[in-house]
Amino acid sequence: MRLVLITVNSNPSSDELYVIFFSATAFFVFLAGFIIYFIVLYQKRQRQNKVERESLQANFRQEFLKARLEIQEQTFAHVSREIHDNITQVLSFVKLNLAMMGGTNAEQQAKISENRDLIAQVITDLRDLSKSLSFENITKQGLVKTIEIETRRINKSGLLNSTLLIEGDSYPLGEQRELVLFRIFQEALNNTLKHSGAKDLTIALQYIPEMFTLTLEDNGTGFLRDNLDDFMGAGLKNIENRASLIGAVATINSEPGNGCSIKISLNPLEQRLYADGNHQDHIG
Amino acid sequence: MDNQYYVYLLLLFLISIAGVARYKKLSPAFKTLTTLIIATFISETIKKIIGKIFHNSMPVAHLWAIMEYAFFSFVYYHLLEDRLVKKAIIASVFFMLLLEIVNFSFFETLLQFPSLILNVSQFIYVLYSLLLFRQMLLNPAEESLFKQSVFWFNLDMLLYCTAMFLDFALTDYFIKNNLDATILIYFSIVVNMLFYAVIGVSILIDNRKYNAVSFNNS
């Protein structure tokens, strides 16, 4: 700001100087204390802000995921209803029409009969699909029963040889949790069918009082997570996000040539706003 | 003393160069600060030349005192966010101009050192500084405090103003009591050098983008 040049040649110091120097020192000590206090307080505020920001981000992620799941469930429900109320009805009508066709020779009758069987098969498959999409059906039948049906359906299709193991006495996990767990199961099953090239799949449900685990293990080609493309990586991330939404932990292990294992661990006693149905936007 | 003055001028020159080199990257407050440093360098050079020719550079000091206040006020105008405070800052510049007119008309003539204006300015700078510290506490940025140009500049202002206020008071006391004030003069020289050195550091670390983010976060 400025340099002031003053030259004074004068007497030696007086006793008052001590008071002045002590006052000046005290003032600077106070100033130093203020600065240290400011720095400490500022860093404390920074930490608080960081925690709050992370909490807000986590809440936002949860809300976003919840909204996505709700939209997905509504879409599934709509597709399920359409299959059940429209497509299968039309197919039943076609099957009936075929049965009423007369004035044909034996060869044509055999063809018609064969087509009727095929339509009956399509109707059954569509009804199964409709049930697996409908959350009402899942919540009504429970997780174990729904997974059993799904496993049977897969085995029947011949795409995969799946084995279902249930350990311990099953207990209800709550509608929300069971629905999310079933969607995770479907996502994992879909991944196995589409990408793994596996022949065998073992599904294990383990019920112990303070821990529930759902494990899917296949003997497919396996993968390294870092090498996955965005689509596959997003599918696995989706499984982890869904698990976290109900307070579960998803552990995904895979190595090239050693298949893949997906394990969902859930403490049923842990309360979650979304999973325990206290939320105003609760599915269903 | 001449050598110290030249070192002081060299320091101002170097900070001016650094400020000009980084001008585009600087936030508006630090752009104003760079302009202030350049103006200080010019003013101090003129003061020295006039002092050598006329043996009194106080008219320049009077003019510079008010200009410097306006510059520092505009730096804080950019840094402080409260609208009322911003209005008060603008008003204070006009108040200081009025005070300066009253000062050289009735108290300290143009040939005397403008200590009144400088003391009032320093008191107001301390207020600005405390207000900015408060604002920083209310809206902490993500970046480490020690990497924030605003923190170093504001700390520098607080320490400089309080130290110089004390130095002025003591020098006055020493002169009145016929005591040797050499140590206080050296103290003021060291404080001045440190003040500009820290301003130089704050100009070097300032970043327009970062400041925009941290202020927007608030």
From TrEMBL, chain A:
Protein's UniProt keywords contain Calcium:
no
Q: Give me the segments passing through the membrane.
A: 20-42
| UniProt cross-references to PROSITE patterns, sorted A to Z | HIS_KIN (PS50109)
A single GO molecular-function term is:
ATP binding
Q: Where is the signal peptide?
A: none
Alphabetical UniProt keywords = ATP-binding, Kinase, Membrane, Nucleotide-binding, Phosphoprotein, Transferase, Transmembrane, Transmembrane helix, Two-component regulatory system
Task: Specify the enzyme's EC class, one word.
Answer: transferase
Quickly give the catalysed reaction: ATP + protein L-histidine = ADP + protein N-phospho-L-histidine
The Histidine kinase domain is annotated at 78-270
Q: Name one GO cellular component term.
A: membrane
Please tell me whether the keyword Transferase is annotated for this protein. yes
| Descriptive protein name | histidine kinase
Q: Which organism is it from?
A: Mucilaginibacter frigoritolerans
Automatic annotation (TrEMBL), chain B:
Q: Which UniProt keywords apply?
A: Membrane, Transmembrane, Transmembrane helix
What protein is this chain from? YhhN-like protein
Segments spanning the bilayer are 6-23, 60-77, 89-107, 113-131, 151-171, 183-205
Q: Which organism is it from?
A: Mucilaginibacter frigoritolerans
Q: Where is the signal peptide?
A: none
